[in-house]
Amino acid sequence: MGVLTDIVIAGRDDAQKVGEADVPSHEFPGIDAKGINQVHMGTLYAILTRSDYDPRFMTTHESFVYSASQDGPWVQLIPDDMVARLAKTSDAEIPLIADEWGKTEEFDPEYSRWTKEDIVTFLRQLTSLSRKAQGENKSVFMWSCL
Known about the structure:
Elements: E1 4-10, H1 15-20, H2 24-27, E2 30-32, H3 38-49, E3 64-67, E4 74-77, H4 80-88, H5 93-102, H6 116-135, E5 139-145
Antiparallel strand pairs: 1-2, 1-5, 3-4, 4-5
Helix pairs in contact: 4-6, 5-6
């Protein structure tokens, strides 16, 4: 069983609405990100910041802005700094970042079905979504459910 994940943009006051949506990316501007979790996002953030991976990334109490039950769905706020970095990422940088991200353990074929092309496509979508969120002064949320 995989993790269902959507990444969407919405106002901070809409976190509960995102959490209560059956498929948030159908109700809010967003993307289907099945299989992505906070570890994936943490490794991407480490790549973007050229820092060490922090296992606490998006796992602190403050990161969770909505939680329905132990099995989800959960809504986590993607940090503003990550959104800003993604929004500033150039189209030329995306394949380079995707290549580095794809070499992390989380995308090892033993654990993931994501191909290199899937990672590039997702990163392009995430970058575009981040730009849109910044342009609209909104937040980016990761909705997930078991």
